[in-house]
Amino acid sequence: MSYKLHHEEEGTCLECGSVIRGRKDKQFCSLSCKNRYHNRVLMNKRLMRAKTMAALTGNHTVLEALLHEGKTGAEMHELLDLGFDPGYVTEHRRGHFRHDEYACFDIWYCRTESRIFNVRRKVSDPR
Ligand SMILES: [Zn+2]
């Protein structure tokens, strides 16, 4: 019976891919690789959040313009031409008439594949 007290394994650096010797839970070959890796992860998160906020802001601008023109609906192809991206919403629920209802911040609307309708600004809860 033999025990290996100092089990060493070779791993590869998550940043540069070079071989790491030593503790098997070590993920990086150097502090600079560790920093580069974590900076990139943070940057990707920031970019993802910025992209989502830009899409939601763009949708909100399109919806506000509709309301400003006194419209409560529009064809999806028109919205897409204006840069509306139906994949970005802040809330979703099944509405009273079994239509899917979506929100972009304070503006709610119903949506089908081809159009949106019943666009209205959310009335704030008086409670
Ligand atoms: Zn490295």
- The total of beta strands comes to 7
List SSEs in N-to-C order.
EEHEHEEEE
Main sheet properties: 5 strands, antiparallel
- Poorly predicted runs: none
**What is the count of DSSP helices, taking H or I runs of 4+ residues?**
2
Helix amount, in percent?
A: 25-40%
Class computed from helices, strands and strand pairing? alpha+beta
Which distinct ligands sit in these coordinates? zinc ion
Assembly context of the chains: single chain
Radius of gyration: 25 Å
Integer tally of domains: 1
**Global geometry:** elongated
In spatial order, strands of the major sheet run: 3-7-6-5-4
Q: Report the end-to-end length measured between terminal Cα atoms.
A: 72 Å
- pLDDT averaged residue by residue: 90
Assess the beta-strand content as a share of residues.
15-25%
Outline of the structure:
With 127 residues, the chain is an alpha+beta fold.
Topology:
Layout: E1 11-12, E2 19-20, H1 31-68, E3 74-75, H2 76-81, E4 91-94, E5 100-104, E6 107-111, E7 115-121
Antiparallel strand pairs: 1-2, 3-7, 4-5, 5-6, 6-7
The structure holds zinc ion (ZN).
Residues 13, 15-16, 18, 28-30, 33 line the site of zinc ion.
